[in-house]
């Protein structure tokens, strides 16, 4: 991280260089230290799969993983992600879709799709920690992600179908 | 989570892959070279005269490309789908804090935002009207030249006064309903790109591209032919993006700067300027004879219109129409008034007045049942419409026995209800039911154009297009599934085109639960002529009798030859010059000249179980069962999603959601104080049962289900709370304080 006097004198506007890894690719960017991660992803790096809905950490539409921890990207500033590894929705899957994405497709875990990127990241995070979550585990893990379309039914079925697969039901 | 929707082949929705991978570009995700970013200055006051607007300082700010005010509107400085009464940019007066006064395009949002602060607007505050009652006072300041009454609507049948005299039991209640936020996850936004011919291309979500084109043409003073609208996809709408929002400002600035201009509202900006559901106060007086036959029903509705009309008159008409719902009431008097205030503009919202009026109607039924000491289902049965009865405005409707079928299924679920008996000291449990009837389409007297187009394109794909938008509701699945069913082709053979006014046919709006109906009806009209064109071509080319040919996967097949098509669609496309079949028709409408009267109705019923905590006043919905009768299910996942999602939206409406206004200023600004249901608030035990059979002779096919799942849930929750603690809630959203007061008033907290 390049913190010079210019940055210290004017932390809001002065540009600094940070290095971060996004979906496996190491990137150097020039940014204001206080720029929000979600804006860096969307505006500078063109990862527009991550969405902004409330902008104040209340809806989860901008959920991404930072070093495998689930965060709201509207709540993280540039200087906080220097040297970190970020996974966005674009970083899931490879030749085929990720199993969580597949479950959302077959179980109808989305409608308009605007919460979906964040929701899938939250489900990813949940299942990484807990492959067979109970109802209360699911509620706790996804409480920060709003969906206005599905009423959560399809999302719950997506998670439960994955849990059932993992434990071999 | 159960559902009886048979596991018919249930494909992944056409837009699915792009949504789960994040690859789908929403219109707010787009960027263009040389693009500018714009912000809109909204009024500082809910009601004021504008004395002056000075933009000089803002214009000087480096990075600012243009600042516009009312002086920069070349055409009509008004918008509004039916009644254009809302200024694009206010001239001498503001009537709500959502009113736009100026807009700035700059090289970044930050600079545009800074420029807004440099615009000096001199206001002279005027007295505010912050309730519809104040708007009706004789000496109230007039918000519009014709006064403060936006619309009156009424329906009278029989002799209400005489009928009340004959009643054995009469109940009267006033129901109060809140201002609900649509809460679409994608706020309004998009990009307007100027074209070389002086026209524009608009990339911004709306529920009716052609209507935006029409309105923008009036505002910009350029022909509709010079405006192209990309209206889809979008991150939810629920009625909220039906009216123009940011389009005029981006369009004016794009034409002025000759650069693409992007506007994407922040949530706070969205909340300030967007439509909301009409707050209504509904007073209902209903009487029955000794046996529970409803003789008289008198309803008075007062709706808070906010500052401008948009579709408010139609919403009020809809509420008046549905005042008796699925019941046959011989004497009825319904009167509604929609009143202008300085509050935020209210307008179209999923359910369209049906939610409010059904809360009152079903509430009355439950209160009557309680007074009569009668089973609430039995009371409903006694008064329920028969298949061939007239509609609620005394008008002819498509015969339907759905009301009875839904009630029967709800009865079965209600009887099965096993409310926990292990009441703890402070938990009480109850069950409740409600039913609803909901009109589809715009109703009598409203231009309700429908239609679609199908042809075999050069690539050999069956191209099907409609002037509809994909809001998330699953329209693409509906089109794909109906096409496969009716044509016989496979999903891979189909290319669906929607959401671009330069190529789609007129289908009308993506509203009013009309999309599925229209897609199905269009396909009925188009399929035979289309198939015939292809078969005739193949028949002549291959010298096979036409009667031996049919359309199947990948091409045209010959009867009895199963190894493959005798002509692929690709080959057919190369030889067949014109395969286009177009249809254009009016949405089915009642033959009786009754303003707003509908013809096709869907029916729904809900049973819920609730837990009421009389210590905290919290109400928790433990289970929801939906029963829906709307004809055959077109796409199982889409159907289920619409009903579950609609139900949860109304669970929020009932239990937690309210956009608060204080002195006509928004107290609520974002999701920190506007609470929509999250996954913790909803019951995992949610089940959807579809009754797919249509009444004998019904030729109208599947009905849309975008709204019906939102209607009956509210009164069902209220009934369940009554079942649990013996109190009626009359004001939404239900507050803990209200529950606690009621519990205390009944002496339920005496053990403390």
TrEMBL record, chain A:
One Gene Ontology molecular-function label: metal ion binding
2Fe-2S ferredoxin-type domain mapped to chain residues: 16-92
CDD domains for this protein: fer2
Keywords, sorted A to Z: 2Fe-2S, Iron, Iron-sulfur, Metal-binding, Oxidoreductase
Domain of life: Bacteria
InterPro entries, alphabetized: 2Fe-2S-bd, 2Fe-2S-bd_dom_sf, 2Fe-2S_ferredoxin-like_sf, 2Fe-2S_ferredoxin-type, 2Fe2S_fd_BS, Beta-grasp_dom_sf, Diverse_Oxidoreductases
Protein name: Carbon-monoxide dehydrogenase small subunit
Organism taxonomic ancestry: Bacteria, Bacillati, Bacillota, Bacilli, Bacillales
TrEMBL record, chain B:
Record SMART domains: Ald_Xan_dh_C (SM01008)
InterPro entries: Ald_Oxase/Xan_DH_a/b, Ald_Oxase/Xan_DH_a/b_sf, Ald_Oxase/xanthine_DH-like, AldOxase/xan_DH_MoCoBD1, AldOxase/xan_DH_MoCoBD2, AldOxase/xan_DH_Mopterin-bd_sf, Xanthine_dehydrogenase_dsu
One Pfam family hit: Ald_Xan_dh_C
Single GO term (MF): iron ion binding
Domain Aldehyde oxidase/xanthine dehydrogenase a/b hammerhead positions: 21-127
NCBIfam families: pucD
PANTHER family named in the record: XANTHINE DEHYDROGENASE, XANTHINE DEHYDROGENASE SUBUNIT D-RELATED
Protein name (record): Xanthine dehydrogenase molybdenum binding subunit apoprotein
Organism whose genome encodes this protein: Ureibacillus chungkukjangi
Record lineage: Bacteria, Bacillati, Bacillota, Bacilli, Bacillales
